[in-house]
Amino acid sequence: MTNDWPELAKALTADIRNLRVGAPDVMKAFSSMATSAGATGALDARTKELVALAVSVAVRCDDCIALHAKAAAERGATREEILETLSMAIYMGAGPSVMYASHALAAFTQFEAGKNPQPQSA
Fold first, then answer.
1. Residue spans per domain, the chain
2. Could you write out the three-class secondary structure of 71-120?
3. In degrees rounded to 5, what are phi and psi of residue 50?
4. What are the CA-CA distances from residue 51 to residues 25, 74, 101 (Å)?
5. Of 2, 48, 83, 96, which has the highest C-beta tally within 10 A?
6. What are the tens digits of pLDDT across the range 73-82?
7. Measured at the alpha carbon of residue 103, what is the angle toward residues 102 and 105, in degrees to the nearest 5?
8. 18-67 pLDDT tens trace
């Protein structure tokens, strides 16, 4: 199975927009928390996205992987930084994290390239 990570991120953005309309108070609070957690402090925005990507792998959330791989690419993360981040996620999560780390690397690769690869047929 090959995911089209940019298309997944685009669809998620639309779905989240609909959720903001339907549950505005909760989503406003969530957005405020995300803004506060992502604000530059001791860690810069790129580093925080790398942490978020590692957590996405650890909790096995493909949707989270799509959004945080995209954000990491947009914030200038390098392939080497992604691979070190995924190495830590694998170390902390063992075998299942290996599988999700492969998803995260594929997602980052697609966003880094700025193109949507054609899905492979089975």
1. 5-38+45-113
2. HHHHCCCCHHHHHHHHHHHHHHHHHHHHHHHHHHHHHHHHHHHCCCCCCC
3. -65, -40
4. 27, 15, 13
5. 48
6. 999 999 999 9
7. 65
8. 899 999 999 999 999 999 998 999 999 999 999 999 999 988 899 999 99
- Which token pair is 37? 């957690």
- Please state which architecture CATH assigns to domain 5-38+45-113: Up-down Bundle (1.20)
- The string of DSSP codes covering 18-73 is HHHHHSHHHHHHHHHHHHHHHS-SSS-HHHHHHHHHHHHHHTT-HHHHHHHHHHHH
- Entry pTM: 0.74
CA dihedral 100, 106, 111, 115 (to 10 degrees): -150
CA of 12: how far to CAs of 33, 91, 120, in Å? 19, 28, 22
Q: What distance in Å separates the CA atoms of residue 27 and residue 89, rounded to the nearest whole number?
A: 28
Distance set, CA 58 to CA 25, 53, 73, 81, 91 (Å): 29, 9, 19, 17, 10
